[in-house]
Amino acid sequence: MVIGMEDKKQQQKHMWLRFSRLRVDNRDSSEPKITPEQAVKLCDRNFGIGADGVIFALPGVNGTDYTMRIFNSDGSEPEMCGNGVRCFARFIAELENLHGKRQSFTVHTGAGLIVPEIQEDGLVKVDMGQPVLKAANVPTKLASNKNDAVVKSELVVDGVTWNVTCVSMGNPHCVTFGTKRGEDLQVDALNLAQIGPKFEHHDAFPARTNTEFVQVYSPSHLKMRAWERGSGATLACGTGACATVVAAVLEGRATRLIFVCLTIVIVKQKCTVDLPGGPLEIEWREEDNQVYMTGPAEVVLGAFVFEVDQQERFITKKSIVPAACGIEDMIPLLVLLKVYGQLISAVVVLGHESCTRILLRINI
C-alpha cells in the first residue's frame, strides 16, 4: 500500500497538487483486500493514516491491463476518481519499475475505460473519456434545457437559488459559478462544510453528487473548490476539474479553440484549474469530444504487510510493496498486522529495514 499525495520534485518546474489516496496492490485478487469499514478507519485523519479514500489495483477485465476500485473515506464506492487514477498510474509505475519511461496502459473502472499516460517529465496525462450531459444519465432530476443537458439551470439550496450545470465524468457533478443574483463567486469565502452536504444530498440528485464552486479569472483560467460525494471537502478533484471546464464551455465562460484571424490559425485551448492543493491542466478536445487531464503524482508512503500464522502463532512477513523505488528521501512505512486473516492494527514507522521510530498506531 502506498499513498500518492505530493509531487515534491515537480513543485519548482510544473505544479504541486496535494491530494491523498491510499493505494493497495491487489493484482492477485479480483476482490479488495480491505473492507469498506477498514477503509473508513484507515482514512481517518485523526485516528488513522489519513486519506480521501483507498484505491485498489486489481487484475484487468475485458482485455484491459488493470482494474481500479475505490472506497471513499466514508466507505462508499464511487465509479471513478480523476486524481485517483493519476495516483493509480504512479503506483503501477512503481510496481512495474517504469521509472523514466513514457508509458500508458488501460484501466477498467466503474465509469468505463480510462487510459493514463506517464510522461517523461513525470506528470501523468489521463484520457478521461467523453463527458455525459444527458440529464437522465448524469443523473439529475432537473429538467434539461439545452439539447437534453442541464446548463445554467436554477437549483434552490437552503433558500438560495443557484445557477448550476450538470455533468458526468463517469460520476455525477453539479457545477456552479454563482447564484441567480449574478454576483461573481468568491470561492475562498464559501463555508464549504455547511453548503456542500446540502448540494450532495439534494433531491435533484438521486445518486448524490459532487459539487464544484467555480470562480472565473479568464476563459483559460478557473479557480475551483470541490465538495466530493462520500469524501467531503478535498484539496483536489480531477473529475471535478474536468466537469468544471466542460461546464464553463457550455455556459460560454471558456472556449475550446482560439482563432487567430490574421494568420487563420486555430489553436487548441487548454484550461488551468486552480484547486486548494494546486493546479490541473484540462483540455476538452473538439475533434473527438474527449477530455484530457494532466497533473502530478508521487509516492510518499510504502507498506509492509505481516500476518500471524494460525497454527504456529508467530508473525510472518506476508508481502512487501517496493515503496522506495527511485525515492531519494527517507519515507514512512505502513505496517499492517493481520491475525487469523483479519486486519487488526496498523503502525506507521520512519525509515526502512532499520526503522525505529513509531509515528502512530491505530486499531482497525
UniProtKB/TrEMBL annotation:
Protein name: diaminopimelate epimerase
An example Gene Ontology biological process: lysine biosynthetic process via diaminopimelate
Keyword Amino-acid biosynthesis tagged: yes
GO cellular component assignments: chloroplast; cytosol
Subcellular location: Plastid, Chloroplast
InterPro entries with a match to the protein in the record: DAP_epimerase_AS, DAP_epimerase_DapF
Family: Belongs to the diaminopimelate epimerase family.
Pathway: Amino-acid biosynthesis; L-lysine biosynthesis via DAP pathway; DL-2,6-diaminopimelate from LL-2,6-diaminopimelate: step 1/1
UniProt entry keywords in alphabetical sequence: Amino-acid biosynthesis, Isomerase, Lysine biosynthesis
Catalysis: reaction(s): (2S,6S)-2,6-diaminopimelate = meso-2,6-diaminopimelate
